[in-house]
Amino acid sequence: MTPREPGRTGTAVPAVPRQATGAEEHGDLGPGPVDVLLTVNGTLRRVTVEPRVSLLDALRERMGVTSPKKGCNQGACGACTVHVDGRRVLSCLTLAVSCQGREVTTVEGLADGDDLHPMQRAFAEEDAFQCGYCTPGQLMSAVALMEEGHTGDDAEIAEWMSGNLCRCAAYPNIRQAVRNVRDGAAAEGER
Amino acid sequence: MTIPAQIGRGMDRVDAHAKVTGAARYSAEHRPPGAVHAVLVGARIPRGRITGIDTSAALAAEGVIAVLSHLNLPKVAQTPHLIPSLAGTTAHGQSFFPMQDDRIHYAGQPVAVVVADTLERAEYAAGLVRVSYAEEPWVTTIAQGRGDTYEPERIFGGFVPGRIERGDVEAGLARADVRIETTHHFAANHHNPIEPSATTAVWEDSKLTLYDATQGPTATRLTVAQLLGIPPSDVRVVSEFVGGSFGSKAMIWAHPTLAAMAAQHVRAPVTLALDRAQTFTNTGHREEQEQTITLGATRDGELTAIRYAKTSPTSPFDDWAEPSMGPVNRLYACPAFEGVHHLFKAATMTPTFMRAPGEGTGAFVIETAMDELAHELGMDPIELRLRNHADLDPESGRPWSSKGLRECYALGAELFGWADRDPAPVTGAAREGHWVLGTGMASAIYPVYGVVNPQRARARVYADGRAVIETGCSDFGTGAGTVLRQVAADALGMDAEAVTAHYGDTELPTTVAAVGSAGAGAISAAAHTAATALRERLVGQAVTDPGSPLHGADPAAVRVSGGRMVRPDTGAGETYGEMLGRHMTFDAEALGEWAPPGGDEYGMATFGAQFAEVAVDPDLGLVRVRRMLGVFAPGRVLNHKTARSQLMGGMLWGLGQALLEATHMEPDQGRWANPSLGEYLIPVNADAPDVRVEMIEVEDRAVNPLGVKGVGEIGQVGMAAAIANAIFHATGRRFRDLPITIEAVMAPA
Amino acid sequence: MRPFAYTRAADVDTAIAEVARDSGSEYLAGGTTEVDMIRIGVARPRRVVDINDLPIAAIEDLPGGGLRLGGLARMSDVAAHPAVRERYPAVAESLEKGASAQLRNMATMGGNLMQRVRCSYFRDGDRACNKREPGSGCAAIHGVNRTHAVLGTSEHCIATHPSDVAVALTALDAVVRLRGPDGERTVAFDDFFLLPGDTPDREHPVGHGELITGIDLPDLPMARTSHYLKVRDRESYEFALTSCAAALRMDGDAVAEARIGLGGVATRPWRARRAEDILIGAPATAEAFARAAEAEMADAVPRSMNGFKIELAQRTMVRALTTVASRTGGGAA
Hints:
The complex is a heterotrimer of chains A (about 190), B (about 750) and C (about 325). Chain A is of the alpha+beta class. Chain A has five helices and six strands. Chain A has helices spanning about 55-60, 120-125, 135-150, 155-160, 170-190, and strands at about 10, 35-40, 45-50, 80-85, 85-90, 105. Chain A has a six-stranded mixed sheet with strand order 1-3-2-6-4-5, with helices on both faces. The longest helix of chain A has 20 residues, at about 170-190. The model of chain A is unreliable at about 1-25 (pLDDT under 50). Chain B is α+β, with helices and mostly antiparallel strands and about 750 residues long. Chain B has a seven-stranded mixed sheet with strand order 3-5-1-14-11-12-13. In chain B, strands 9-17-16-15-10 form a five-stranded mixed sheet. A five-stranded mixed sheet of chain B has the order 18-19-27-28-29, sandwiched between helices. In chain B, helix 6 (about 215-230) packs across helix 7 and helix 13 packs parallel to helix 14 (about 520-545). Chain B is globular. Chain C has helices at about 10-20, 35-40, 75-80, 80-85, 90-95, 100-105, 110-115, 120-125, 165-170, 190, 275-280, 285-295, 310-330; strands spanning about 5-10, 25-30, 45-50, 60, 65-70, 175-180, 185-190, 210-215, 225-230, 240-250, 255-265, 270. In chain C, helix 11 (about 275-280) runs antiparallel to helix 12 (about 285-295). Chain C has 13 helices and twelve strands. The radius of gyration of chain C is 19 Å and the shape is globular. The model of chain C has no long low-confidence stretch (mean pLDDT about 95). In chain C, strand 4 and strand 5 (about 65-70) form a beta hairpin. Chains in contact: A-B, A-C, B-C. Chains A and B meet through helix 1, helix 2, helix 3, helix 4 and helix 5 of A and helix 1, helix 3 and helix 16 of B.
């Protein structure tokens, strides 16, 4: 990570060995813009940001990854939920610079080519959104929920999806979508 | 009447793929080359004067391009005048535009705009603008302003009279055997769509493009053009994706114009996105209000008189109150009614439409009062309502264009198991551990607002068998884009999958803002008219085309299905595409314009019945809603899936209204105390029970061509009352103020 | 957000040295408080030292039966850990009732203890707040104070301590392990959270550069039936209006020992020692619990909007204790 002039756009860069993260380097970065290398949806990307820039703003404003949404910018709505190294976190309270060397997944990275993730399909089929603004965050939570194993019953799904506000109040449909994927996943597992 | 196949289908949202893949771009996400960021600075006092603005630190901060304030912002071309966006013209949210002089009328009023090359630099510099003020006396709450009220002539942007009277209320109350008299306080509310309002403004020479989060692209166009003093045709507004609104984006507030002014000033595209706290002071709110009602009734439950009054704060500029007396006046047959609005001028922006504006609060008052009356009379609440069923519109005396309320009660009662309900409060009887259970119901009504302007759409059929329907409306989660396809497909005789909808752009044919549950009626009328015109033209061409198998057929008898025209007498036919191709034509199109008839033969409203079961923990003051059922009669249902979602969302809004939502005013500071999603509590997933929604399709030939009455608001109306009535049923205690808080419900020590 | 510099520390000693040598440096762990505080201008570091790589995230058994929660252990990992769930259920329950799944994946145990209050006057840069700006006054005392504290307040501050898990930890006699430039030390939970008094800006007896490396839970058999009850408007994702962590050791039908923590009502995670003392030898009945709860809240000071918390806290205590008594098998639940 080396200071450089402001750049506005994130660019894809050739694969760089993971150890070249600079995490071991000493010395301060910033407060001016610094280069950060991170993997976004499977592609290693370089983004140039000041250390104060959140992962959310880096994705939205610098890297053209606009699915994480800014609903509150203070950890109170969940619209900015992304996965960092496989865990669901709030990108508004995560500094982009702290994601050096980490793997970030957003809704743009859920589908396998043209094949939607089962949770994406279930959300569409069950009308688990209206305006769609909280949807990327809901989806990232719902996908994580499956991994976490918190889909036992409706109360559990509801509780573990409660960090994602939906003002359109599609909540019952969101639970139905999660149940569909859970049961589909279970059925596949039985085969 | 048979329901055509394409209309009503529960097809998936047309934009579902974009929304689940992240491809959907909302207004702040458009990044034209060279775009910079603008951030608002709001006033820290509720009333007074700016005595100085020091922008030196902000201007010196890295990346800052400009700081605009009343000292250097251009004057607007015309003083705005509030007109509800349903009128289809300019839609200023208030008769005031900020940053024109040094006056402060409300806390949060924009006093400066900071423009910088990046968002974080603009945000940081906004905090460096130093504004000094001379504060003047003010009031903001009912407690402070109660002594200074006046009776406005008209409210709600001039739509509704401030006072409505009919019959002899004194005489009606005098002959009543029973009187119910209650007073209700409602906390102020804020819409809080998850997307805060945002505008990206791009100038190309004298042409302005705005990517704007709006319920009405045309409203934005006309309003911004008027303020800037430029031709509306020079303003293009694009709003393909809008992240919820609920009324906060129904009127056009200052920020789109400020974004355009900032972009002009810095000669670069500008994105101006409100932050969450700023949405509390820049996009209106539902006002704090107090309502009182007196019901008079005979021993057998016949209403003899209703007296109603409401007190609320309004802005210095406008006489605004949401028209809460509507449902009080119109739900039941009653020979005498008196309703009065009282306002006082407060240091606040003009309140605005918020989902179920007026009906949301007014229905709570009449429907909890009716529950009290039923209890007082020892009568079943549904039976009491049936005895006072309004066969005619009580307000106008005219017949209803359609109703269906009796059917809603009947189906709701059956599905909810109302017959098994013990009418007496069941305190302690229905108990699950610490929870006592209760059930309640309420009626719902929402007016069908007539639009006044012509509504337009364009339909085009291509020779390859696909079609396009175009109209300028935005889809902020309503499903407008989806039903456009269905309506056009129905009229063209095609499958909805073969129809693409283009919308959310003022370059497309003009429709009114989708407000007041009138959006679906307006756009379906436009799309139906356009697609029907195109079909008639194509069929007309076929029957006069000697080369067509339909030549000579009666055009009225021709059936079209799957894009194939068929004459029933011979069974011969051809597709639109075959006919167009034969004439070396690539496509055909028609513009449709539906001119609202504007008749006044009918009372027009949507009705429904709401049911709720609650569990109350009286020790800890907790109320959790276990079960919700709503049965509605919204006329024609264009898409059962999206309509159900909107109704369900409205019902859960009723839950929020009943139990959670309140914006508190700082009594000694004159500003909102909790402008955040952490402190303004909206329901989370765990608060929402499973919701059952049923729709009874009633035929309505008066409202619009397809008989669409709208589903945006009716779902909320009455649900808070059903919940409060259920709490009474569980606990024997009445809670008349909203929200119903833990401290209220906690049984007295 | 003010500009600041950033560095990522690879080991504990380096991290401590980096912060200790510079009064403008602050630790950055999960970021759920720190990033928020910087954004709203309450925290104004010149530099943040990212400690997320430090090897102090483990959850380990202690000799003698206790459990050590690493200072950087994430709330979600602690809540899911079998030893925590089995031996200290109140800790797991309180964690899972805190914040949201996403925040719990980010926030660390050390950061949880160091989190700042949610008082809107503390967060709002131009309102009087003695915690943010000593001597400026307390706007909450006459403001919108429904969520504010009734215990441990002073005329200078009534902000509620927001943590859930700290309530359970205080009830269960946890110990905070600190490491600083001068070495390691431990601080009992009771001593770790300071009452506001006339210095509400001073919240912990922690020197600049000191780092929470761990939280030690003692071997406490009675904790195996402990319980955390949280009361709030919303079913989830909201700070407590009142909460109670409780554990009981029974001797037949009588309470031999009680551990009670209160949340949502006090300026610090509140150890209800007065109630605990009253309960010793008392029967495990709702009446006895109510007497103890009433005594605990006797000194509570209500403000304009939060008076209900005094009664609600008592009922919360009675409910939590009743649940624990039934779990313990000794009480009349």
